[in-house]
TrEMBL record:
This is Purine-binding chemotaxis protein CheW. SUPFAM superfamilies: CheW-like. One of its GO terms (biological process) is signal transduction. Residues 26-163 form the CheW-like domain. InterPro entries: CheW-like_dom_sf, CheW-lke_dom.
Length: 163
């Protein structure tokens, strides 16, 4: 069973937990866009969403790694997800960072927009026939509100970039 714990502030300033449960055959995904394509990632892989900050380049890195930055004294590697997936990006378009809980690397994925969180049934996920040329990155496709959402596994992206 999935369990999501959200923190909120009460009126007197104390934090309290709000627990949202989903059944074993459901999951919640964070839905986002890159260019005109819609993607989703399991919310359990997401730590936070941040406004982009200047990034320091890193020599001899993976071509999709923009560099690193340090919000709140934590070194985070920035991955340009559009570049990694071979989609192409418009440098003038607004972006956000989705910071992921990856096993061996603090990673922020640059995306265009976050559309929200959707609860989906595992039964509705269809097998992905193509995975942007990388094995295991695209875990499936699901239709939500008439839109096809490609589900991405951020851990597989990190494993490919930093094996």
């Amino acid at each position: 069973m999935y369990k999501e714990v959200l923190m909120s502030m009460s009126e007197n300033g104390d934090s309290r937990e709000i627990v949202s449960k989903t059944s074993a055959d459901e999951m919640e995904i964070l839905v986002f866009t890159i260019q005109d394509q819609v993607f989703g990632v399991d919310v359990l892989q997401v730590r936070e969403i941040l406004m982009p900050s200047p990034v320091d380049k890193v020599p001899h890195g993976h071509p999709s790694v923009e560099g690193v930055y340090m919000p709140r004294d934590i070194l985070i590697t920035v991955i340009n997800l559009a570049d990694y997936l071979g989609i192409g990006s418009n440098p003038e378009e607004k972006t956000l960072f989705i910071v992921a809980d990856a096993e061996r690397l603090n990673a922020a994925f640059r995306v265009n927009r976050v559309l929200g969180i959707e609860r989906i049934s595992a039964d509705h996920i269809e097998k992905a026939e193509a995975s942007f040329g990388r094995q295991g990155v695209l875990t499936g496709i699901v239709r939500v509100n008439g839109k096809l959402i490609s589900l991405i596994n951020f851990a597989e992206v990190v494993e490919d970039i930093a094996p």
